[in-house]
Write a structure and sequence with these properties.
The chain is globular and about 60 Å long. The protein has 286 residues and is α+β, with helices and mostly antiparallel strands. Strands 3, 4, 5, 6, 7, 8 and 9 form a 7-stranded mixed β-sheet that branches. Strands 11-12-10-13 form a 4-stranded antiparallel β-sheet. Strands 1-2 form a two-stranded antiparallel sheet. The longest helix has 17 residues. It has 8 helices and 13 strands. It has 3 domains: 73 residues, Winged helix-like DNA-binding domain superfamily/Winged helix DNA-binding domain (Arc Repressor Mutant, subunit A); 109 residues, no CATH class; 79 residues. Helix 1 packs across helix 3.
Amino acid sequence: MAEQLHTRPPLARMLRIHQAIQEGKYPTAASLAASLEVSSKSIHRDLEFMRDRLQLPLEWDPRRFGYFYTETVNAFPQTLPDTISLNLAEIEQTISFRTRAEPILDLNIFEALAKATAERQQLELTYRKPGQKQTELRIIDPYHLANINGEWFLFAFDHLRKDIRTFVPARVKAIRPTGESFSRPESFSPEKQLRDSFGVHSGQREYEVVIRFNERAADYIREKKWHDSQRLRDLKTGGVELRLKLSSLTEVERWVLNWGGDAVVVKPQELCQAVRQSAQKLLKAH
C-alpha cells in the first residue's frame, strides 16, 4: 500500500496509537497501519519516536502479539520533555509542546486542524468563545499548533480581525475547508508571539511585574524558569522576589491567585488591584 503522507499527520497518528494502547487493544504495527491508512514503516517510526524520544514505557508483548505500556501512563503530553517540536508533515515547526496536563480533544477536529496547518489550507471554523453559548464563523489561515502547559492553542490569521489570533481547538465545533491555500509569512514565529506573554495572551503594553514569595514557596520558584525575562532576588526572610517583563497581566493574575497567601504582588498597581478584587470575590462566594 502506498503511504498517504497527508492522511494523518505524525502527532495525530501518535495520539491515535496512544489511545489504542491505553484501551488495552494490544495493537500491532500492521493493524495500526491499516486503521490509520499509512505504511507499517511509518507506524514503526512513530512507535520508536514514542518510546525513545517521548520516553513512553512502550514494549511488545510476544504472548499477545501487540504493543502495550509497561507502566501506567496518565496523560500523553505529561511524559514529554520540556519542549519538543514536531512538524505535522516533515518534523519542522508547525507544532510544539510545553507540558503540564492533557487536554480533552475531539481527535477528528484536532486532526483536521493539524492537516490544514501542515498543508497550508484555509479553514472556516464554527467557534465558541469562552463564556458564550452562541457560536460564530471565522475564516482563518492556520499557522501553528502549540501545546503550552498541557493546553492546545492554534495560532492563525483571522480574516475578520485582519490579524493573528489564538484559538482553542476544544472550542472549535465544526470545520469546513474553503478550498483556498495560503503562504505562512516568513516573519511569523511562535517564539516571537509568546515572547512577552506569561502563557499565550499577548498585549500591547509593557509591565514590570514584581512578586514576592514566602519561604515555603521560595524553593519551588527558584527551581523553575517561569519566563525568559525573569530575575530572582533572595529576601532576608528566606523568601524570593520574582521580576518579569510582560505585555499582558491576564494569565499572571491567575497564576498569582494559585499561590494563595504564599505570594504578594508588589507591582504593578493594576495587578495588585486585580488580584485583590479576585480574592474578594472568592471570599464572597463562600
